[in-house]
Amino acid sequence: MGFAFFFFVAWLTIAGFGFMRKQLTFVENTVLLLLIMIISIHWSWIIFEELKHVEISKEPINYTTFLIHRSITIPVMVVIAINLVKRAATITKALLTAGLSVLLHVVLVLVGRFVGITHAVHWNLIYDVVYFALLHVIAYVFLKYFHHLGQSEAERV
Prior knowledge:
The chain crosses the membrane at residues 6-24, 31-48, 60-82, 94-115, 121-143. By secondary structure, the protein is mostly helical.
């Protein structure tokens, strides 16, 4: 059940990203996606495998579900959220968009716990909220840095 749900969510996320009107360029979306993917993979490796704060199911199908969520759903959803934040007209709408994205991520973590994909050992849901919020902040700050880097390169030429 968990695999079907998370596979559908990943498919829906990718389709939504493919069909949405993007505010960022292809290069910006790609770089941002890769950055978030690298952070997500390293974070989960440290928290799940090394520190063992959260246990992952030993069943192959549930582990595959975890990998799909970690490697596809989380990065693409953050990139979608950053595109929507860039489209927002006011800071309130931008913060609301980012907050709803964090909430959606936390709901997916709760679904993963409910269907037995993960099990919290020494972990609190607040840590997930902080992690997802920081992931959005890192993405936004990196995007600002990326824009600044492109502008400074254009001034040198």
